[in-house]
Amino acid sequence: MVSQITKGIKIMVRTSFEGTYFKNYKIHFAFSYEITIENQSKDLVQLLSRHWEIKDALNDVEMVDGEGVVGQKPIIKPGESHTYSSGSLLTSPFGTMKGFFNMINFTNSRKFKVYIPIFKLCTPFALN
């Protein structure tokens, strides 16, 4: 598991290889990831949107932007956390993801970025 804290918000990431799939006549490697957003600050915050940079072993980069996470814009109280799961398909057996969440602090009405640490997506057989 990797983790990082930005402005009192801790991001923790776990990954798993889910298998291979054929899509558009190509083999794809499916990965799932679980992200926990823990509010270690003293302020009420809300996740507004996300930005991902997904890179495979061939240096193909995909940028993904969108509102919320898996259809939600969670409000996270001090001392509480929000966990969600999602996934990504790569055309190689390993790659990386990194990004950030755009959030708002309800105490001072300021928007801020919380960085998601770079994490690896790797098939077990690619480690040998």
TrEMBL record:
Q: What InterPro entries does the database record attribute to this sequence?
A: ApaG_domain (IPR007474), ApaG_sf (IPR036767)
Q: Which domain of life is it from?
A: Bacteria
What is a single Pfam family found in this protein's UniProt entry?
DUF525
Question: Gene3D superfamilies, per this entry?
Answer: ApaG domain (2.60.40.1470)
Where the record annotates domain ApaG, the positions are 3-128
PANTHER family, from UniProt?
Answer: F-BOX ONLY PROTEIN 3, POLYMERASE DELTA-INTERACTING PROTEIN 2
Q: Which protein, by its recorded name, is this?
A: Co2+/Mg2+ efflux protein ApaG
> What gene makes this protein?
apaG
